[in-house]
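Task 17 of the worksheet. Students: predict the tertiary structure of the chain below and write it out as C-alpha cells. Keep your answer in the requested format; marks are given for formatting as well as content.
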Amino acid sequence: MHITVEEELMYKVMKALYDSGIPVSFKGSMVLKACLVEAGFPDDTRHTVDIDGNWLSEEAPSAEQMVASFQKALDESGIGLDVSMYRMYGEGRSAGFEIMDRTSGEVLFTMDVDVNRPEIPGRIYEIEGFRFRGAAPLQMITDKISAISTEKVFRRIKDVVDLYYISKVFEFNSQEIVQTLNATGRPLGSFSGFLSQTDELEHAYAKFRFSGGVNKPPFEEIYQTVKQYIGSILPKNRSRAWER
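Model answer:
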C-alpha cells in the first residue's frame, strides 16, 4: 500500500505526540490505514488530509495547555511545524487544530481531537517505523456500522468505502459489534437510508473524491460487498424487501 508524503508526515506527528506521553490516542482514517497494512491489505486506499484523536485526562485541558503540549512534542521531535487551535472543544464538538509549515505558514493538515469522551479500546500500531496508540479494529468497525445505520450515511459515505476495505481482511461478528455498541453507548439505527435510498447513496458516492490516482471502485461493487459483509446485523425483513 502506498503512503503519501503528506500521510508520512502525519504519522510522524502522531508518533511525536505518542512519544511525548500526551494522553492522546488516535482514530479515523490514519489508524485504519495502519490497521489495513498490518492485516495484509495489498491495494491503495483513499487518502486523507487530517488526523483524528481522543484526549483523555482527569481534568479538562485548556486551549493553551493543548496547544503548548502539542507544540512541545513537535519541537522535541525536531519537527519544524507549528500548531494553532481554530476551534475550542465543547458539548458534541471536537477541538480543531491546524498544523502549519513554520516557514511559509501554509496549513499542511488539520487535527480534530475529542476531549474526555468515553474511553475506547485501543492498541499500539506501527507503520513505516512510526508507532502510536490507536483505536482497536473492532471499535473502528463498530463506529462505522453505527454511522451508516442512521441517516448520517449520506454524509458519511467514506464509512461505506472503509467497510468495503475492511471486508477484505476482517471477519464480521455481529455479536461482538452489538456488545461494543452497548459498551460505548453508540446507537444502532434502522439502516433505512442504506437499504432503501440507494439512488441518494450512489449520488453521494459519485461526489466523493478519490485523490492521488487511487482506484475508485464502481458503486455497485462497493454497495453489494458492504451489504453482504454486514448482512448479519441488518434488519432481516428489510434486507430482503429492499434487495437491489
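Marker's comment: The first strand starts at residue 24 and ends at 27. The radius of gyration is 19 Å.
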